[in-house]
Amino acid sequence: MKAKSQLINEDVVQAINTVERLNIQEGLLINFGGESLQYRHIFNNKYDPSANFTDAPMDLLGEADGNLFDSPTYMPNSMIEQAFRKKQENKKLQRLPNILPHPSNPPNPK
User: What's the pTM value of the predicted model, to 2 decimals?
Assistant: First the structure.
């Protein structure tokens, strides 16, 4: 949904990217801001009916309390797996010892 004086090409591209990213078969882009109602029916040419979607765990979305607008956030399983792997990698990096000196404390040459 938009509230602009006129829909522009970038709005349509954004809608196409959204339906493709979420693997939605089709969507509707609606603009209420113009002199009259504008809409575009968006079709996803990359739709994959075999793709699996899952309610994403809240900690992957940055919501530790599990209350992200009180509604499930469905994402393709591949996106959830990718976010989980990235989170695990970040945890590993945080556990690595800091072997490089801090820029404000350069090593003493001998």
Answer: 0.50
